[in-house]
Write a structure and sequence with these properties.
Layout (H helix, E strand, L loop, with lengths): L15 H16 L5 H6 L6 E5 L5 H9 L4 E6 L2 H13 L6 E5 L12 E7 L8 H11 E12 L5 H9 L4 H13 L3 H9 L5 E6 L3 E7 L1
Parallel strand pairs: 1-2, 1-4, 2-3, 4-5
Antiparallel strand pairs: 5-7, 6-7
Length: 218
């Protein structure tokens, strides 16, 4: 029987020790090529200035910049400590001139209407305090005709797959964090209902073994 969703956090990872642990974990995921970069690009978020919501230590955005031409990235992150780590990682990769990290909450984005050529996020949806409001904000700051990609874990993921993911995570707090993230994640019908209540009329929800992807167009 599917467990009821248990909200996790709306403040991101703030503690310096936790941020460094998370950075190390994401670095390993990056080396294993476990990111959704190719799916993001394939679904049309691949040009101009795009927004990433919840970049964490920045590895997904860095990978996206490396795989796209003539693009720039604006990344909105709630944790100032995480921004410092992401900026360093981006600088170390030699592409800091193409990325800008902004401190802020996705519930009220500090951007004008119709600004971005695409928006993507992966792994932050389950942390949004008011996801319906965030989706409305995404619609507001997106240019007409531009695409979105929202990827995350799913609550009904096979427990065997969770064990597989844990193998690559040595830190106990990060292992526990993976469990709570899954418990806070959504399932496909919940996201379909959420999108039907949003300003988006062009969208679909894809479900994979590990997670869920929302793709849409303004």
């Amino acid at each position: 029987m599917l467990k009821e969703r248990i909200p996790e956090t709306d403040e991101g990872i703030q503690n310096t020790f936790d941020v460094l642990d998370y950075d190390e974990m994401q670095k390993k995921f990056s080396k294993k090529k476990w990111f959704a970069t190719d799916s993001i690009i394939r679904n049309g978020v691949n040009r101009g200035n795009c927004l990433e919501i919840g970049p964490g230590p920045g590895y997904l955005g860095i990978d996206w910049l490396k795989k796209t031409l003539g693009t720039t990235l604006t990344a909105l992150e709630i944790s100032k400590t995480m921004i410092e780590v992401a900026e360093k990682n981006c600088k170390d990769e030699g592409i800091s001139e193409r990325a800008e990290y902004i401190s802020g909450n996705a519930l009220k984005m500090p951007f004008e209407n119709d600004r971005f050529d695409g928006i993507f996020t992966n792994g932050s949806l389950h942390e949004w305090e008011e996801p319906q409001m965030v989706i409305s904000e995404i619609y507001r700051v997106l240019k007409p005709g531009a695409k979105i990609f929202v990827g995350d874990l799913k609550r009904n993921v096979n427990p065997v797959l969770i064990k597989m993911m844990k193998i690559g995570v040595k830190n106990k707090s990060m292992k526990r964090g993976l469990e709570t993230s899954v418990g806070a994640a959504y399932i496909k019908p919940e996201l379909e209902e959420m999108m039907r209540k949003s300003p988006f009329t062009k969208f679909h929800v894809n479900e994979g073994a590990f997670g869920i992807e929302i793709v849409g167009e303004k």
